[in-house]
Amino acid sequence: METYHQIESMRARVRAWQVEGEVVGFVPTMGNLHEGHLRLVRHARRISDRVVASVFVNPTQFGPSEDFDGYPRTLEADSEQLRAEGTDALFAPPVSEVYPRGLDHVVTIHVPGLSDILCGAHRPGHFTGVATVVCKLFNMIAPDRAVFGRKDFQQYQIIRRMVADLNVPVEVIGSETARAPDGLALSSRNAYLEPAERQIAPALYRELHCIASSLKAGERDFLQLEAQGWEHLRRVGMQPDYVSIRRRDTLEEPVPDLPASQFVVLGAARLGRARLIDNIEVADL
Ligand code: PAF
Hints:
CATH topology of the largest domain: Rossmann fold
Order of helices and strands: EHEHEHEHHHEHEHHHEEE
CATH architecture of the largest domain: 3-Layer(aba) Sandwich
Bound molecules: pantoate
Largest sheet: 6 strands, parallel
Strand order of the largest sheet: 1-4-3-2-5-6
CATH class of the largest domain: Alpha Beta
Structural class: alpha/beta
Strand content: 15-25%
Helix content: 25-40%
Number of domains: 2
């Protein structure tokens, strides 16, 4: 595996592969890799000839109260894991390479509507930072395809919208959520859970799954389903930020006469030091 820290050499490497007719898949990450990330790399591997992964802790997606400096930086271990998965190249630029004019005057990309609801309402500015850095990474690397986890469903839809609206020539692929045997979605944030909290954490998955099953069975009292889910999470000791049924493709409020396969159930809840998010697409049940 080759490691690049500069845009020009990374781009030249990718272009040389593409000139040879090879399809380049890309997996953007903020490092601190776990099995969930490695599955994205394997997905990219299956659908591409070459795989590039990036490790970049993006300062513009952290809010003022979020700990950018404390975010785990584990480049050596990440690099080893990526190498073991057969990744062809790692792009690990310094902040000054990605934001050469500093962080105060960055040209940003705001995906209206989608960025301001659900997690966006609780983390103002977060998705603008995500859309901006992903657009920049796409321009820096110019891959053919990019793979994102569907666990971050709102992020995935925001990236899809950004790419469609800005005519970015990258195919965005959503990869299935990797879960522990008890259903908990794999996430770097799970490391913040104390052992007792780890036992409680799968309740989020179970609650969203239960709502999705009710929708599939024909239930359409959205407010009642959301309120019940919220109350159940509160009772097991979580502090829900939201439990929400939405239209899968737009994340707009649902309407009762839509087929169940058009719904996604999303939730976010705080548990101890962790903020857990998850979702269930009814079409997958
Ligand atoms: O999902 C993440 O890890 C980040 O939001 C991403 C897409 C790598 C952008 O920094």
